[in-house]
Write a structure and sequence with these properties.
The protein has 355 residues and is mainly α. The protein is 89% helix and 0% strand.
Protein backbone atom coordinates (compact mmCIF):
# COMPACT_ATOMS: atom_id res chain seq x y z
CA UNK A 1 0.00 0.00 0.00
CA UNK A 2 1.44 3.36 -1.05
CA UNK A 3 1.68 6.51 0.99
CA UNK A 4 -1.40 8.03 -0.63
CA UNK A 5 -3.47 4.94 0.14
CA UNK A 6 -2.22 4.94 3.76
CA UNK A 7 -3.07 8.60 4.21
CA UNK A 8 -6.45 8.06 2.62
CA UNK A 9 -7.18 5.08 4.91
CA UNK A 10 -6.07 7.10 7.96
CA UNK A 11 -8.34 9.96 6.85
CA UNK A 12 -11.30 7.58 6.53
CA UNK A 13 -10.64 6.12 9.99
CA UNK A 14 -10.34 9.60 11.50
CA UNK A 15 -13.54 10.69 9.80
CA UNK A 16 -15.34 7.59 11.04
CA UNK A 17 -14.16 8.23 14.61
CA UNK A 18 -15.28 11.85 14.45
CA UNK A 19 -18.63 10.75 13.03
CA UNK A 20 -19.12 8.17 15.78
CA UNK A 21 -18.21 10.74 18.42
CA UNK A 22 -20.69 13.20 16.91
CA UNK A 23 -23.44 10.56 16.84
CA UNK A 24 -22.73 9.61 20.45
CA UNK A 25 -22.76 13.21 21.72
CA UNK A 26 -25.75 14.26 19.59
CA UNK A 27 -28.04 11.26 20.01
CA UNK A 28 -26.86 8.50 22.33
CA UNK A 29 -25.54 10.70 25.15
CA UNK A 30 -28.80 12.68 25.66
CA UNK A 31 -30.74 9.40 25.83
CA UNK A 32 -28.37 7.66 28.23
CA UNK A 33 -27.07 10.64 30.27
CA UNK A 34 -29.24 9.94 33.38
CA UNK A 35 -28.06 6.32 33.58
CA UNK A 36 -24.44 7.26 32.90
CA UNK A 37 -24.67 9.78 35.73
CA UNK A 38 -26.33 7.11 37.88
CA UNK A 39 -23.48 4.67 37.15
CA UNK A 40 -20.89 7.30 38.14
CA UNK A 41 -22.81 8.03 41.36
CA UNK A 42 -23.02 4.31 42.15
CA UNK A 43 -19.27 3.96 41.56
CA UNK A 44 -18.59 6.83 43.97
CA UNK A 45 -20.90 5.28 46.58
CA UNK A 46 -19.40 1.81 46.18
CA UNK A 47 -16.72 2.22 48.86
CA UNK A 48 -19.10 3.21 51.72
CA UNK A 49 -21.72 0.71 50.50
CA UNK A 50 -19.12 -2.07 50.56
CA UNK A 51 -18.09 -1.02 54.08
CA UNK A 52 -21.70 -1.24 55.26
CA UNK A 53 -22.13 -4.66 53.61
CA UNK A 54 -19.07 -5.92 55.50
CA UNK A 55 -20.77 -4.82 58.72
CA UNK A 56 -23.69 -7.11 57.97
CA UNK A 57 -26.05 -4.78 56.12
CA UNK A 58 -27.98 -6.01 53.12
CA UNK A 59 -26.55 -4.49 49.96
CA UNK A 60 -29.93 -3.17 48.80
CA UNK A 61 -30.53 -1.47 52.17
CA UNK A 62 -27.02 -0.01 52.25
CA UNK A 63 -27.47 1.32 48.70
CA UNK A 64 -30.83 2.82 49.66
CA UNK A 65 -29.35 4.56 52.71
CA UNK A 66 -26.42 5.98 50.72
CA UNK A 67 -28.64 7.09 47.84
CA UNK A 68 -31.10 8.83 50.17
CA UNK A 69 -28.20 10.45 52.03
CA UNK A 70 -26.56 11.77 48.87
CA UNK A 71 -29.88 13.00 47.45
CA UNK A 72 -30.77 14.62 50.76
CA UNK A 73 -27.43 16.42 50.87
CA UNK A 74 -27.76 17.61 47.28
CA UNK A 75 -31.34 18.75 47.88
CA UNK A 76 -30.33 20.65 51.01
CA UNK A 77 -27.39 22.28 49.22
CA UNK A 78 -29.56 23.26 46.25
CA UNK A 79 -32.23 24.72 48.54
CA UNK A 80 -29.65 26.70 50.49
CA UNK A 81 -28.02 28.06 47.35
CA UNK A 82 -31.42 28.95 45.88
CA UNK A 83 -32.46 30.68 49.10
CA UNK A 84 -29.21 32.65 49.19
CA UNK A 85 -29.53 33.56 45.50
CA UNK A 86 -33.10 34.81 45.97
CA UNK A 87 -32.06 36.79 49.05
CA UNK A 88 -29.11 38.34 47.20
CA UNK A 89 -31.31 39.22 44.23
CA UNK A 90 -33.89 40.79 46.54
CA UNK A 91 -31.26 42.84 48.37
CA UNK A 92 -29.79 43.96 45.07
CA UNK A 93 -33.20 45.06 43.79
CA UNK A 94 -33.80 47.05 47.00
CA UNK A 95 -30.39 48.75 46.83
CA UNK A 96 -30.47 49.33 43.07
CA UNK A 97 -31.84 52.93 43.17
CA UNK A 98 -29.13 54.00 45.64
CA UNK A 99 -26.50 52.20 43.60
CA UNK A 100 -27.59 53.95 40.43
CA UNK A 101 -27.29 57.31 42.19
CA UNK A 102 -23.74 56.39 43.20
CA UNK A 103 -23.04 55.32 39.65
CA UNK A 104 -24.32 58.65 38.32
CA UNK A 105 -22.13 60.61 40.73
CA UNK A 106 -19.13 58.42 39.96
CA UNK A 107 -19.64 58.75 36.22
CA UNK A 108 -19.96 62.54 36.50
CA UNK A 109 -16.72 62.70 38.47
CA UNK A 110 -14.95 60.44 35.97
CA UNK A 111 -16.37 62.40 33.05
CA UNK A 112 -14.86 65.60 34.43
CA UNK A 113 -11.46 63.99 34.90
CA UNK A 114 -11.60 62.38 31.45
CA UNK A 115 -12.57 65.71 29.86
CA UNK A 116 -9.59 67.36 31.54
CA UNK A 117 -7.34 64.56 30.25
CA UNK A 118 -8.80 64.84 26.74
CA UNK A 119 -8.42 68.63 26.73
CA UNK A 120 -4.72 68.33 27.52
CA UNK A 121 -4.13 65.65 24.88
CA UNK A 122 -3.38 66.03 21.15
CA UNK A 123 -6.45 66.55 19.01
CA UNK A 124 -6.77 63.01 17.65
CA UNK A 125 -6.00 61.38 21.01
CA UNK A 126 -8.44 63.64 22.85
CA UNK A 127 -11.26 62.78 20.46
CA UNK A 128 -10.50 59.07 20.89
CA UNK A 129 -10.60 59.43 24.69
CA UNK A 130 -13.96 61.23 24.52
CA UNK A 131 -15.43 58.55 22.24
CA UNK A 132 -14.19 55.72 24.47
CA UNK A 133 -15.53 57.43 27.59
CA UNK A 134 -18.91 57.97 25.93
CA UNK A 135 -19.10 54.29 24.94
CA UNK A 136 -18.22 53.15 28.47
CA UNK A 137 -20.80 55.53 29.96
CA UNK A 138 -23.51 54.23 27.65
CA UNK A 139 -22.62 50.63 28.52
CA UNK A 140 -22.76 51.36 32.27
CA UNK A 141 -26.10 53.14 31.97
CA UNK A 142 -27.56 50.19 30.04
CA UNK A 143 -26.20 47.63 32.51
CA UNK A 144 -29.30 47.38 34.76
CA UNK A 145 -31.60 46.79 31.79
CA UNK A 146 -29.17 44.22 30.35
CA UNK A 147 -28.95 42.36 33.68
CA UNK A 148 -32.75 42.36 33.97
CA UNK A 149 -33.16 40.91 30.48
CA UNK A 150 -30.56 38.24 31.12
CA UNK A 151 -32.17 37.30 34.44
CA UNK A 152 -35.61 37.05 32.85
CA UNK A 153 -34.20 34.93 30.00
CA UNK A 154 -32.56 32.54 32.47
CA UNK A 155 -35.74 32.25 34.53
CA UNK A 156 -37.86 31.68 31.43
CA UNK A 157 -35.55 28.98 30.03
CA UNK A 158 -35.39 27.28 33.44
CA UNK A 159 -39.20 27.26 33.62
CA UNK A 160 -39.45 25.77 30.11
CA UNK A 161 -36.89 23.07 30.91
CA UNK A 162 -38.26 22.25 34.37
CA UNK A 163 -40.17 19.09 33.26
CA UNK A 164 -37.04 17.76 31.51
CA UNK A 165 -34.87 18.61 34.50
CA UNK A 166 -37.31 16.92 36.90
CA UNK A 167 -37.54 13.75 34.78
CA UNK A 168 -33.75 13.66 34.36
CA UNK A 169 -33.21 14.04 38.13
CA UNK A 170 -35.76 11.35 39.05
CA UNK A 171 -34.33 8.90 36.48
CA UNK A 172 -30.77 9.51 37.69
CA UNK A 173 -31.80 9.14 41.35
CA UNK A 174 -33.69 5.88 40.86
CA UNK A 175 -30.97 4.58 38.56
CA UNK A 176 -28.30 5.33 41.19
CA UNK A 177 -30.08 3.10 43.68
CA UNK A 178 -30.70 0.20 41.28
CA UNK A 179 -27.16 0.26 39.85
CA UNK A 180 -25.61 0.55 43.33
CA UNK A 181 -27.74 -2.34 44.60
CA UNK A 182 -26.34 -4.58 41.84
CA UNK A 183 -23.04 -2.83 41.20
CA UNK A 184 -20.73 -5.91 41.29
CA UNK A 185 -23.03 -7.80 38.91
CA UNK A 186 -23.28 -4.75 36.60
CA UNK A 187 -19.50 -4.34 36.47
CA UNK A 188 -19.06 -8.09 35.90
CA UNK A 189 -21.57 -7.98 33.02
CA UNK A 190 -19.76 -5.08 31.35
CA UNK A 191 -16.40 -6.80 31.87
CA UNK A 192 -17.70 -10.04 30.35
CA UNK A 193 -18.42 -8.23 27.08
CA UNK A 194 -14.75 -7.25 26.62
CA UNK A 195 -11.97 -9.39 25.12
CA UNK A 196 -9.36 -10.67 27.58
CA UNK A 197 -6.55 -8.76 25.86
CA UNK A 198 -8.50 -5.51 26.11
CA UNK A 199 -9.35 -6.16 29.77
CA UNK A 200 -5.70 -6.57 30.70
CA UNK A 201 -4.80 -3.33 28.90
CA UNK A 202 -7.68 -1.48 30.55
CA UNK A 203 -6.50 -2.77 33.92
CA UNK A 204 -3.06 -1.28 33.27
CA UNK A 205 -4.68 1.93 32.04
CA UNK A 206 -6.71 2.15 35.24
CA UNK A 207 -3.51 1.79 37.27
CA UNK A 208 -1.80 4.56 35.29
CA UNK A 209 -4.81 6.85 35.50
CA UNK A 210 -4.86 6.53 39.29
CA UNK A 211 -1.32 7.91 39.33
CA UNK A 212 -2.24 10.67 36.89
CA UNK A 213 -5.31 11.62 38.92
CA UNK A 214 -3.32 11.76 42.15
CA UNK A 215 -0.76 13.94 40.36
CA UNK A 216 -3.54 16.21 39.15
CA UNK A 217 -4.88 16.53 42.70
CA UNK A 218 -1.41 17.38 44.02
CA UNK A 219 -0.88 20.04 41.36
CA UNK A 220 -4.27 21.59 42.09
CA UNK A 221 -3.52 21.66 45.82
CA UNK A 222 -0.23 23.44 45.11
CA UNK A 223 -1.96 25.95 42.81
CA UNK A 224 -4.72 26.46 45.37
CA UNK A 225 -2.17 27.17 48.10
CA UNK A 226 -0.31 29.64 45.87
CA UNK A 227 -3.59 31.35 44.93
CA UNK A 228 -4.56 31.56 48.62
CA UNK A 229 -1.32 33.34 49.58
CA UNK A 230 -1.59 35.74 46.61
CA UNK A 231 -5.18 36.62 47.47
CA UNK A 232 -4.46 36.91 51.19
CA UNK A 233 -1.59 39.33 50.53
CA UNK A 234 -3.71 41.41 48.14
CA UNK A 235 -6.71 41.52 50.51
CA UNK A 236 -4.49 42.54 53.43
CA UNK A 237 -3.08 45.42 51.39
CA UNK A 238 -6.66 46.46 50.51
CA UNK A 239 -7.74 46.27 54.15
CA UNK A 240 -10.43 43.63 53.54
CA UNK A 241 -12.06 42.19 56.66
CA UNK A 242 -11.91 38.39 57.22
CA UNK A 243 -9.03 38.16 54.76
CA UNK A 244 -8.06 34.48 55.44
CA UNK A 245 -11.65 33.22 55.07
CA UNK A 246 -12.39 35.14 51.87
CA UNK A 247 -9.01 34.19 50.36
CA UNK A 248 -9.53 30.51 51.22
CA UNK A 249 -13.06 30.39 49.80
CA UNK A 250 -11.91 32.12 46.59
CA UNK A 251 -8.93 29.75 46.23
CA UNK A 252 -11.18 26.70 46.68
CA UNK A 253 -13.61 28.04 44.05
CA UNK A 254 -10.66 28.67 41.73
CA UNK A 255 -9.60 25.01 42.07
CA UNK A 256 -13.01 23.73 40.96
CA UNK A 257 -13.54 22.88 37.28
CA UNK A 258 -15.29 25.53 35.16
CA UNK A 259 -15.05 28.13 37.96
CA UNK A 260 -12.21 30.55 38.62
CA UNK A 261 -11.24 33.55 40.73
CA UNK A 262 -13.30 35.70 38.37
CA UNK A 263 -16.49 34.20 39.85
CA UNK A 264 -15.67 36.10 43.06
CA UNK A 265 -13.37 38.97 42.10
CA UNK A 266 -15.14 40.34 39.01
CA UNK A 267 -18.65 40.72 40.57
CA UNK A 268 -16.98 42.12 43.69
CA UNK A 269 -15.11 44.69 41.56
CA UNK A 270 -18.34 45.60 39.76
CA UNK A 271 -20.12 46.04 43.10
CA UNK A 272 -17.32 48.28 44.40
CA UNK A 273 -17.52 50.34 41.21
CA UNK A 274 -21.28 50.75 41.57
CA UNK A 275 -20.79 51.89 45.17
CA UNK A 276 -18.18 54.41 44.08
CA UNK A 277 -15.16 52.59 45.58
CA UNK A 278 -13.05 52.99 42.45
CA UNK A 279 -9.64 52.27 44.08
CA UNK A 280 -10.84 48.96 45.53
CA UNK A 281 -12.52 48.00 42.24
CA UNK A 282 -9.26 48.61 40.36
CA UNK A 283 -7.30 46.71 43.04
CA UNK A 284 -9.59 43.71 42.65
CA UNK A 285 -9.21 43.78 38.87
CA UNK A 286 -5.41 43.96 39.18
CA UNK A 287 -5.47 41.08 41.67
CA UNK A 288 -7.57 39.03 39.26
CA UNK A 289 -5.10 39.68 36.44
CA UNK A 290 -2.00 38.89 38.51
CA UNK A 291 -3.45 35.64 39.92
CA UNK A 292 -4.42 34.41 36.47
CA UNK A 293 -1.07 35.36 34.90
CA UNK A 294 0.87 33.54 37.64
CA UNK A 295 -1.40 30.50 37.38
CA UNK A 296 -1.11 30.27 33.61
CA UNK A 297 2.68 30.67 33.76
CA UNK A 298 3.31 27.82 36.20
CA UNK A 299 0.35 25.50 35.56
CA UNK A 300 1.79 23.79 32.48
CA UNK A 301 5.16 23.05 34.13
CA UNK A 302 3.51 21.96 37.38
CA UNK A 303 1.07 19.63 35.62
CA UNK A 304 3.89 18.19 33.53
CA UNK A 305 5.93 17.40 36.66
CA UNK A 306 3.01 15.91 38.58
CA UNK A 307 1.29 13.80 35.92
CA UNK A 308 4.31 12.88 33.80
CA UNK A 309 3.43 14.86 30.67
CA UNK A 310 6.01 16.57 28.49
CA UNK A 311 6.06 20.33 29.30
CA UNK A 312 5.36 21.28 25.67
CA UNK A 313 2.42 18.87 25.46
CA UNK A 314 1.24 20.05 28.87
CA UNK A 315 1.32 23.67 27.67
CA UNK A 316 -0.57 22.69 24.50
CA UNK A 317 -3.16 20.78 26.57
CA UNK A 318 -3.68 23.73 28.93
CA UNK A 319 -4.06 26.19 26.04
CA UNK A 320 -6.40 23.96 24.03
CA UNK A 321 -8.46 23.28 27.15
CA UNK A 322 -8.79 27.00 27.80
CA UNK A 323 -9.82 27.73 24.22
CA UNK A 324 -12.39 24.91 24.10
CA UNK A 325 -13.83 24.79 27.62
CA UNK A 326 -12.34 27.58 29.72
CA UNK A 327 -10.97 26.87 33.19
CA UNK A 328 -12.46 23.37 33.30
CA UNK A 329 -10.69 22.50 30.07
CA UNK A 330 -7.38 23.69 31.53
CA UNK A 331 -7.78 21.06 34.24
CA UNK A 332 -9.22 18.20 32.19
CA UNK A 333 -7.32 18.38 28.90
CA UNK A 334 -3.92 17.49 30.44
CA UNK A 335 -5.53 14.37 31.91
CA UNK A 336 -7.04 13.64 28.48
CA UNK A 337 -3.61 13.98 26.86
CA UNK A 338 -2.07 11.64 29.46
CA UNK A 339 -4.87 9.14 28.84
CA UNK A 340 -4.28 9.23 25.08
CA UNK A 341 -0.54 8.79 25.62
CA UNK A 342 -1.09 5.78 27.86
CA UNK A 343 -3.63 4.28 25.42
CA UNK A 344 -1.06 4.69 22.66
CA UNK A 345 1.72 3.10 24.74
CA UNK A 346 -0.53 0.16 25.68
CA UNK A 347 -1.42 -0.38 22.03
CA UNK A 348 -5.16 0.14 22.54
CA UNK A 349 -5.01 2.94 19.96
CA UNK A 350 -2.24 3.89 17.57
CA UNK A 351 -2.05 7.67 17.19
CA UNK A 352 1.72 8.17 16.84
CA UNK A 353 4.97 6.24 16.87
CA UNK A 354 6.91 6.12 20.12
CA UNK A 355 10.66 6.67 20.31
Amino acid sequence: MGKIEKWFAALIVAGALVGLAWLFVSFLLPWTAPLLLAFCAAALMELPVRALVKRGWKRSFASCVMTVGVLGGLTWLTARLTYRAIGAATDFAVQLPALMENVSRTMESLSGKIEQLAAGSPEGVGEYIRTAASSIGSAVSELPALLSRRALDIIGKAAQRSPDILLFSITAAIGSFFISASFPRTVAFISAQLPESLKSKLSLLRHYLKGSFSGLVRSQLILMGLTFFELAAAFMLMGVNNTPVIALVTAVIDALPVFGTGIVLLPWALWCFLEGSIPRALSLLITYGVVNIVRNCIQAKLLGDQIGLDPVMSLLAVYMGWRIWGVGGMLLFPVLFVTLRQLNELGIVKLWKTI
